[in-house]
Amino acid sequence: MSVKILGLMMVRNGARTLGTCLDSMQRYCDTVYALEDRSQDGTRAILENHPLVSNIFSAPRFISGKDWFFSESLMLELLYRMSDFYLPDWVMVVDSDEILSPGVDLRGILARQPPEVVAVKARKRSVWNDPLHPLMVPLMGQAESIQGDTWRYFPGLKARGKQLHNCRLPEGIENRGRVVTIREILFHHDGWGTLQERIEKVDAYTAIDPTYELNEGVPYDKALLFGYKRAEVNRLIHDYHCRFQEHQSRNDRPSGPNNEPAP
After folding, report:
1. What span, in angstroms and rounded, lies between the C-alpha atoms of 152 and 118?
2. Closest to 148 measured CA to CA, from 166, 175, 128, 126
3. Cα dist. 81→93, 149, 179 in Å?
4. Separation between Cα atoms, residue 159 and residue 72, nearest integer Å
5. Residue 198 φ then ψ, to 5°
6. How far apart, in whole angstroms, are the C-alpha atoms of residue 208 and residue 215?
7. Fewer Cβ neighbours under 10 Å: the N or C end of the chain?
8. Sheet of 31-37: strands edge to edge?
9. How many whole angstroms separate alpha carbon 214 and alpha carbon 220?
10. Which among 89, 113, 116, 88 has a CA at the least distance from the CA of 185?
11. Domains and CATH numbers, the chain
């Protein structure tokens, strides 16, 4: 059974990964509608020249150079209204630094969902590429979560009202049917690939939301720094090196019978 899938995206200064993301979305989306938020790089040109993108709304750069000058809820609300002008079967919000894992037939998975399933949650795994701490993932944590970014289209759906960290699923979607988690679907996220990037995210989010109210009360450092506080970065690095040495020691042991590590 054929399904019509609309990809939605809000992006600011995403030129580094945007083209690859859109190429990936061609596997499972019929078209993409984008909100381009005051980008200073080549984001707008990439959107204009990619064949998958058919609708772009741009916020002008002269308004402000401040991150999150417009609230996330306002931008999601605009994207939801844009979907009302396409009338798809399914809607997905995809960030410009997310890539669907190769081999996942997302279009087929959505086509097979029974009518009572109105939204889908999937795995999202952060790509780790830190030359200074190459095995911090997985030695200090898996950097994987379950998130809901895909839902069956209904007219007039509303965004949740927080400035940041809204659930991407529309408000009240769970009242229309079942929300299911499909672990077969895996997205790779390329935004927090080094320890330094994570520290910068902690500082930026904490400056906006010092009481963590927008993050359900969860401190940003504990969430992004593998359970360590912002002031404990040196201890995080020390503990990582200890685990790294243990890991190297185990791997350097001679093998016993049947290729089992020697005791």
Report:
1. 5
2. 166
3. 13, 16, 22
4. 9
5. -70, -40
6. 11
7. C
8. 53-59, 31-37, 5-11, 90-93, 144-152, 117-126, 178-189, 98-100
9. 10
10. 113
11. 5-193 (3.90.550.10), 194-253 (no CATH)
10 Å CB burial of residue 90 (0-12, 13-18, 19+) is buried
**Cα diameter, the chain:** 68
Dihedral sign for Cα atoms in the order 2, 179, 126, 161: positive
Query: Which pLDDT score, from 0 to 100, does residue 253 have?
Result: 61
- Quickly list DSSP for 36-67: EES-SSSHHHHHHH-TTEEEEEEE-GGG--ST
61, HSE (Cβ side, Cα atoms, 13 Å) = 8
3-state secondary structure 147-196: EEEEEECCCCCCCCCCCCCCCCCCCCHHHHCEEEEEEEEEEEECCCCCHH
pLDDT at 220: 96
Residue 254's pLDDT is 53
**Amino acid type, 183:** R
